[in-house]
Write a structure and sequence with these properties.
It is built from five helices and no strands. By secondary structure, it is mostly helical.
Length: 116
């Protein structure tokens, strides 16, 4: 029985392991090329499944939250409030402060739209 046997694919489908099923061929190729041993192969498949489930759970929670719009940093209008320097906000978003082990405190009055 080959690992690519349809029975394996059916078993993954039955067990609802579509994250593993989606990446099976790529992981098998890595194994054949010597990039992954048996345990690394299994661990990679499990990580693929975990990533798929976490992604699906996030999408489900966002859908249930029924947000009016999805806000992203790229869509933020830096010209709307000149008190917020765009360069500083972009620097904060780059997370260099995190790598440097520094803390950031954001404070100010509560205003309409401050939850954005």
């Amino acid at each position: 029985m080959s690992i690519c046997d349809p029975a394996l694919r059916n078993a993954l489908r039955t067990l609802k392991l579509s994250g593993m099923l989606d990446t099976l061929d790529a992981r098998l190729a890595q194994t054949r090329d010597g990039g992954l041993g048996h345990l690394e192969f299994l661990q990679a498949l499990c990580e693929d499944e975990i990533a798929r489930r976490e992604s699906a759970a996030l999408r489900r929670r966002l859908r249930r939250a029924k947000f009016e719009e999805q806000a992203t940093f790229e869509d933020f209008d830096f010209t709307a409030n000149p008190k917020l320097p765009g360069a500083m906000l972009r620097d904060l978003a780059a997370l260099r402060w995190l790598d440097a082990g520094e803390s950031v405190i954001l404070y100010g009055p509560v205003e309409p739209g401050s939850h954005y």
